[in-house]
Amino acid sequence: MKKTQYDKLVIRRKKCRACRGLQNPAAANLKEYDSDEIGPWTQLHGDLEAEIMVVGQDWGDTNYYEANRGLDNLRNRTMLTLEKLLHASGFGVSLKAYDHGGRGLFLTNAILCLKTGGMQATVEPSWFKNCGRLFLRQQIKIVSPKVVVALGQRAYEAILAEFSVKKGPFRKAVESKQGISLPCGSQLFAVYHCGNRILNTHRKFDAQVEDWRRIRGWLNGPGPEKRYQTACT
Known about the structure:
- It contains 8 helices and 5 strands; from the N terminus they run αβααβαβααββαα.
- It has helices spanning 2-15, 62-67, 77-88, 125-143, 153-162, 170-174, 196-201, 205-220; strands at 52-58, 105-111, 147-151, 180-181, 187-191.
- It has a 5-stranded mixed beta sheet, sandwiched between helices.
- Strand 4 (180-181) and strand 5 (187-191) form a beta hairpin.
- Helix 1 (2-15) runs antiparallel to helix 4 and helix 3 (77-88) packs across helix 8 (205-220).
């Protein structure tokens, strides 16, 4: 059932042209490298039975996409740091190679299509709104992970907006031991992005390790046993 629902969502993504200023990986000039996953990051880990879903802001720009043939450069510092954080907090998953085995992890982005103008180019609020309404909520519903981890403030706020949850201070959310309960039974946690700029200005590596350990602590504690199930339409 999950696979059928997911495949239908991927077909919808391929047809979507809702956002001006973004290019769908299925567009004629990019489709050579498109996949049958919801987005480029999900090709690395897309376990529909995942315990944990990590939601980034957006995957990258068209130049990066074409240069890497639709895949990530797994040697980039952000990917290497994210793997270290996962390992340090007890999530034994590799980000060093592509394979299709189930690994308990689902990677996706709040914005699925590709921007232009570089990896740090501006992202528009309407892109989060459109992608949240059309795809992000449905991904969380289909996978129904125990934990959804928002990688960065924009991803966190996009998830809150889609579930009509009032946002508070981001740092307070990051330091929460309990996270926020979402419909469909998942628990939402916020973490800072692990790129060099954020590591050097907002949240050092050691502090980020502790943030991820709080998530593992919740999973190992009584939290998951208290999950509830409500309609998520």
